[in-house]
Write a structure and sequence with these properties.
The complex is a heterodimer of chains A (115) and B (113). Chain A is mainly β and 115 residues long. Chain A has no helices and 11 strands. In chain A, the strands form 2 sheets. In chain A, strands 2, 4, 5, 6, 9, 10 and 11 form a 7-stranded mixed beta sheet that branches. Chain A has a 4-stranded antiparallel beta sheet with strand order 1-3-8-7, with no helix packed on it. With 113 residues, chain B is an all-beta fold. In chain B, strands 1, 3, 4, 8, 9 and 10 form a 6-stranded mixed beta sheet that branches. Chain B has a 4-stranded antiparallel beta sheet with strand order 2-7-6-5, with no helix packed on it. Chain B starts with 8 loop residues before the first strand and ends with a strand. The chains are: A mainly beta (115), B mainly beta (113). The A-B interface holds A 1, 4, 31, 35, 40-45, 48, 50, 54, 56, 58-59, 88, 90, 92, 94, 97, 100, 102-109, 111 and B 34, 36, 41-46, 49, 87, 91, 93, 95-101, 103-106.
Chain lengths: 115, 113
Amino acid sequence: DAGITQSPRHKVTETGTPVTLRCHQTENHRYMYWYRQDPGHGLRLIHYSYGVKDTDKGEVSDGYSVSRSKTEDFLLTLESATSSQTSVYFCAISESLAGVKETQYFGPGTRLLVL
Amino acid sequence: DAKTTQPPSMDCAEGRAANLPCNHSTISGNEYVYWYRQIHSQGPQYIIHGLKNNETNEMASLIITEDRKSSTLILPHATLRDTAVYYCIVRVTFSNTGNQFYFGTGTSLTVIP
């Protein structure tokens, strides 16, 4: 793994509660991404960041917010968790938008169960 | 819309070459093709990528057709540890701030002893 950790690795929560997932990198890469993975859908992009305090929406951003106050940390928040947000969440990082350095490297994932 | 189409599953004998096909008939001229794999429930692992030319690295070879509408990932000598789900991905640059990887549902490759 390319110096990416995610916490927690597993979480069980109840509908309506807020949840924050953390992605931490030690590579000093500029770009960070949050994906979710569900059966039959592959991985889908939720939000991404192109620098400190710079974020934008991905394909499935409804119900999620993100923040990036420093290069190494990218937080994903579910303001009020719903059962449809039960999923495996992956963080990814990349050094650039172009060329070989655009390759995205993925963290180990966080399994979230919303009851 | 699905940007790539892959067979849902394939088997390969250990020690033989595994050839994993992918169709990306709507690919645009500046969109790269990437291959990743995912073992059990780990994070996806990068394998290789290309734009037009065939590519080879220590893990695999990528063959892209001349019209770029399809590609094949080749694992030259498959081992049991290559059993995984393989994703063929089109990378789209949708703004000057980010790229999006469009993952499909992948091919589940089983390497048989």
